[in-house]
Amino acid sequence: MFFASLVMFSTVMFELHFVITSVWHSWLIGMFFFLFVNLNLMMCVISLISVTCTYLNLRAGNWRWWWRAFFNGIGVGMWVIIYMLGMMIGEFKMTNFASDLVYISWTLLFGSLFGVMCGTISLFASWFFVTVIYMQSKSD
Cβ distance 127 to 54 under 8 Å? Predict the structure, then answer.
């Protein structure tokens, strides 16, 4: 699960860096195209990795696949929080306590919501996959 969320996050890391710096520095012009492409790419990658992990769980006889599928997606939110905190320390070099507090608050809120969104995408993709697989294997 840890490796799957790291792979999902690493595919969209460069675009995420551009989006975060665009928002923080108020360069909102070029951000929207990259955000649209990034979200579509992220949805495809999360769906594919979630389906693969769900297939491996089902093949191993683990019928409780739904929580693992959800936590595979939520792991991306954890990596986003870690990455944004690293950007705060390394790139933005904030010195004021108030700006640190605002940035950390928004980071935790954004990362949590992003993780829930990715977890939902992962869960729905796995649910659709399991439904199709069981419909195909049904013997009447």
Answer: no
Range of the domain at 64: 2-130
What sign has the CA pseudo-torsion 132, 134, 139, 140? negative
- The span from the first CA to the last CA of the chain, in angstroms, equals 36
Please, are residues 24 and 90 in contact by the beta-carbon 8 Å criterion? no
Q: Is residue 139 part of a domain?
A: no
- What is the number of domains present in the chain? 1
Determine if the pTM surpasses 0.85. no
User: What pLDDT, in 10s, does the model give residues 36-90?
Assistant: 777 888 889 899 999 999 999 999 988 888 888 999 889 888 988 998 888 888 8
Asked whether residue 138 is assigned to any structural domain, the reply reads no
Q: Does the residue 135 lie in any domain?
A: no
Report whether 129 contacts 51 (CB < 8 A).
Answer: yes
